[in-house]
Write a structure and sequence with these properties.
The protein is of the alpha+beta class. It has helices at about 1-20, 30-40, 50, 60-85, 170-180; strands spanning about 110-120, 120-130, 135-150, 150-160.
Length: about 180
């Protein structure tokens, strides 16, 4: 019986040591899936998150973060301008509709259909669905990512033809220009 416990103790010792080995890094495809899911979980259903928290460096590329920050700043400035104007009941320029999706109403579901990785860039093709009206809408958007020294970051979103803009950066730039 002593030998059994000795062998059991040695086995458990080596089994527990193995857990301390460094875990392999996420594959690029898994990391991309994680970033896309983070984007649409955090910002997909409402634009309130854009206004209520800082834009994370860990999710967006520096270029897209800069454009997002400019658009948010322009919107907040217009909100203050209207609030302090002679007509505070007018509607300020705010983000309306789902800004990270082609369809203004947003989506009720999405699936990552494919991921194409080429060197330091990637494209994730997403199939969206909006079934809160009849007939239900379906469309495809493409999320563009770049691989930085700190990992994959979302750099742009190309919208389907049902959208009113070609891509996210263009939509945000047009928004900033409209506030001037």
């Amino acid at each position: 019986m002593k030998k059994f416990f000795l062998f059991l103790g040695i086995f458990l010792f080596f089994a527990s040591c193995k857990k301390n080995e460094p875990q392999p890094a996420l594959s690029s495809e898994a990391a991309i899936h994680g970033k896309v899911n983070e984007l649409y979980t955090q910002y997909g259903k409402s634009n309130e998150a854009i206004y209520s928290q800082p834009i994370p460096d860990s999710l967006f590329s520096s270029d897209l973060k800069k454009v997002l920050d400019e658009a948010i700043h322009a919107s907040k400035a217009d909100i203050e301008k209207v609030k302090n104007s002679d007509h505070p009941d007018e509607k300020p320029l705010i983000f309306e509709g789902a800004i990270f999706s082609s369809l203004y109403e947003g989506f009720t579901d999405y699936k990552i259909k494919s991921v194409k990785i080429q060197d330091k860039t990637a494209e994730a093709l997403l199939a969206f669905e909006y079934n809160s009206s009849t007939p239900k809408e379906t469309w495809m958007d493409t999320v563009h990512l770049i691989n930085t020294e700190k990992g994959w970051r979302i750099d742009n979103v190309t919208f389907d033809k049902i959208g009113n803009s070609k891509d996210l950066k263009a939509r945000l730039t047009e928004f900033v220009e409209s506030t001037k």
